[in-house]
Amino acid sequence: MSSGASMNALQRLVEQLKLEAGVERIKVSQAATELQQYCMQNACKDALLVGVPAGSNPFREPRSCALF
Predict the structure, then answer these.
(1) For residue 12, what pLDDT is reported?
(2) Would residue 2 count as lying in a domain?
């Protein structure tokens, strides 16, 4: 690797570290509490918890057709 390429790699690394240092951080306990509140507030909209209405379920079993 040439010194110019090495210098460019180091400059990119420094820029990335500056970006990461500027990110606002919160405590894990606060993030967990907020996530739990969000889940509880949106539980009524969660298809895994309340199911999908039969009429709007794109994955329902196709109906068979019988002719007599």
Answers:
(1) 97
(2) no
pLDDT digits (tens, 9 = 90+) for 9-54: 999 999 999 999 999 999 999 999 999 999 999 999 888 888 877 7
> Does 68 map to a domain?
no
Q: Is residue 28 included in any domain, yes or no?
A: yes
* Domain around 31: 24-49
Residue that has been written with the tokens 């690394």 in this structure: 13
* Helix, strand or coil, per DSSP, at residue 26: coil
Residue 67 within any structural domain of the chain:
no
Please name the residue ranges forming H helices in the chain: 3-21, 28-41, 47-50
Question: To 10 degrees, the CA torsion angle through 8, 13, 15, 21?
Answer: -170
Tell me which residue has tokens 């405590």.
Answer: 27
